[in-house]
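>> received
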Amino acid sequence: MRSAFATVPFYRERWALDGREDPVVVPGRTGTNGGAAPLAEAVHKLVDLVPLAGGAPRADPVRGLGRVLRTARAPGPGSLVVLLGPDDLRPPADLPKGVRGCVADPDGPNASVLRELTAALHRGHRVLVVGDDKAIAAFPGDDRIEAVPHRELDSLDSGPYGVLHDPVLGYLGALGNCGRWHLDWPHVYARPTDGGLAFTLLRQDSPRFVDVLPAGGVRGEVAPCPRHGTPVVLT
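>> returned
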């Protein structure tokens, strides 16, 4: 937070107006939602989320997929991960070693995707299809394909499988085998505020998302998992 306050225009302006200094709340001025900002407001000023030293002004909706899949379905070597979405979506770049990934239009996968899908199934390799419920339902069916549905913060359920996704922040966590929604805690931090759960991407240099409220603000808690000891989200 100190780095964001010192180097990112959006936070310098917002926190100063809220009465925050580096970034401690000024006595007598409590700010709004403890300093957390609606994600929609941050996205509206995306260029101001770039640090003064420069960086990418584009959000990455695929960020973190490889890490959360280890919790959701743990693809092994030879597996194929098919991410369902628009043509401008970039293939996941952080999949585990030996796992291949591609992007497909759920309404009409192109020939190269279908060839790769067919080849993976023919070899007996696992195929994971990741996307929202509508996209998964539209994708050509095969009993051997494993579905991993997106769940946004305001629509968490009991699974049995799923990944916590935000269209701007990317992948924030996954449903574990304990039935709890685990944060990708080395890379994502969350805390409760009066406006809902606020999230920070810990290792993304630009654009910087610090203490933002996704899904319009969702009430919840962050607590240690009684089985694994790592942070889980409760809504």
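>> The radius of gyration is 19 Å.
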